[in-house]
Specification:
It is a single chain. The chain is built from six helices and five strands. By secondary structure, the protein is of the alpha/beta class. The longest helix is centred in the middle third of the chain and has 19 residues. The termini are far apart.
Length: 170
């Protein structure tokens, strides 16, 4: 099947969308975006992730996306920060967690301070406390954290203190 071929042969492409300051036009960083192979039904990320979720391959796809974006960012030697999209349910997985990401950065010659983990909250996630704990680990390693897709409606609980830590005085 096409999805397995894409994952096994690493057929994803990274694209980088500049993030600019509106007032000055100065580029602050780049958001890493993923595309499937050109000319296939899985070119668009929505279809790619939908099929991956349907076939139980979302974690393999997420891992490959992260690796592809980081490798491409390093190879292009882009200035400024990289905004790296991460889904909450992937944060604590051993192969996707902060330590694994930090190891990959070391191999690529990148610094955690140059990466902004952009927590994508466009889908519900259940364990807010666990996500908060993992985000604290990322921050201790030097990563910056941002919340993406805030208007999608699932971020409400993430912002009510569960992820920020306001519930326990942090």
């Amino acid at each position: 099947e096409l999805l397995n071929q894409i994952i096994e042969e690493r057929l994803l492409e990274a694209h980088f969308q500049p993030i600019a300051e509106l007032r000055t036009g100065k580029i602050l960083g780049y958001e890493g975006l993923i595309r499937g192979p050109a000319g296939t039904p899985l070119r668009a990320p929505a279809e790619l992730f939908e099929i991956a979720a349907t076939h139980g391959q979302i974690l393999r796809l997420e891992r490959l996306c992260r690796q592809t974006v980081l490798e491409s960012y390093a190879a292009l030697a882009l200035p400024n920060k990289l905004f790296l999209n991460v889904r909450p349910h992937c944060l604590a997985l051993p192969t996707m967690g902060a330590a694994g990401t930090a190891d990959l950065l070391n191999r690529l010659g990148l610094k955690a301070e140059s990466i902004i983990i952009e927590l994508t909250v466009n889908q519900p996630f259940a364990d807010y406390f666990a996500v908060r704990e993992v985000l604290c680990v990322y921050r201790k390693l030097g990563f910056n954290i941002a919340i993406d897709d805030l208007g999608e409606g699932f971020a409400e609980r993430a912002l009510d203190g569960e992820v920020r830590g306001d519930h326990d005085g942090d």
